[in-house]
Amino acid sequence: MSNIILITGASSGMGRASVDLLSTKGFVVYAGTRDVKEFKNLKNSNIIPIELDLTNQQSITKAIEFIKQKHKKIDVLVNNAGYGLVSTVEDVTEDEMYNQFNINVFGVLRVCKSTIPIMREQRSGVIINISSFLGKIGLPLLTLYNSSKYAVEGITDSLRYELKDFNIRVHSIMPGFFDTKFARENLVTNAKTFDKESPYSALVSNLAPIIVEQINNGNSAEEVADMILEIIQNPKFSAHATVGDKAKKFIPMKKELSDEDFERRVVEYYNL
Questions:
Q1: pLDDT higher than 80, residue 180
Q2: Is 236 annotated as catalytic?
Q3: CA dihedral 50, 51, 56, 57 (to 10 degrees)
């Protein structure tokens, strides 16, 4: 019997790369997306697009129930959906704050909440949360995104204890900057922060182009897909793993240095 996988944010980037890889390895992959039309002319019957809105519990419940009725199980959940808000804390609006956490954090919790009972009853499962190296490292203008990914790391750590007795593994992948649609389509900017008259204009004009350039020239999304496959296949895989150049550079550095020394390195690297 094939393993059944649900991937959120599956229509592009790391999500789509993971759908494509895992479906060729014999897994039945439910590709969660707000717009199933993103999946056209599919030739692989192992890919099943399914409508999924992470901000709507009814949408999530409907999708999970459909998979359960069809297969009686869900073996793997990959919480991949997310986006990045670029804004100072001073400028951020209530809606922007809520929306950032509603997708990146509450969305993860909602899908976990609906999937865990199935995994608990079958006494097996793997949950993989796509976090970020910025879930361990702060950067200006990305405070809301950073903090949402810090929260994902906290969810991962706590769930590992909570679900251990039910043979459910929980992992996080902390990618660095990757060449996906993220910078072009999944970065939301605050208008006041990016106004030329903003008191933060010097910071924005210096840092924003660097971040976008590093994303657009980053690693390939297939590297994340490869790691997801490795986690599924290896029960002894580590709780947290880094993938991509920036993650492999900064995460070990943060562990080795004092907070003050690490902050100095970040300031120097990004010319802050």
A1: no
A2: no
A3: -30
Candidates 11, 23, 148, 172; catalytic one? 11
112: its two tokens: 């976990």
Whole domain around residue 189: which residue ranges? 4-269
User: Does residue 183 have a pLDDT over 60?
Assistant: no
pLDDT at 1: 62
| Active-site annotation holds for 11 | yes
pLDDT digits (tens, 9 = 90+) for 33-50: 998 888 887 888 999 999
Would residue 2 show up in a list of annotated catalytic residues for this protein?
A: no
**What total number of domains does the chain contain?**
1
Exactly one of 23, 132, 147, 149 is catalytic; which is it?
149
Residue 145 appears among annotated catalytic residues? yes
Say which of 23, 114, 131, 198 is annotated catalytic.
131
The reported pTM is 0.93
pLDDT digits (tens, 9 = 90+) for 53-99: 999 999 999 999 999 999 999 999 999 999 999 999 999 999 999 99
Q: Which of 18, 132, 145, 254 is catalytic?
A: 145
- The secondary element (H helix, E strand) that includes residue 7 is strand 4-7
Q: What is the CATH number of the domain that holds 50?
A: 3.40.50.720
- Residue 193's alpha-carbon distances to 89, 91, 147, 203, in angstroms, are 9, 6, 18, 10
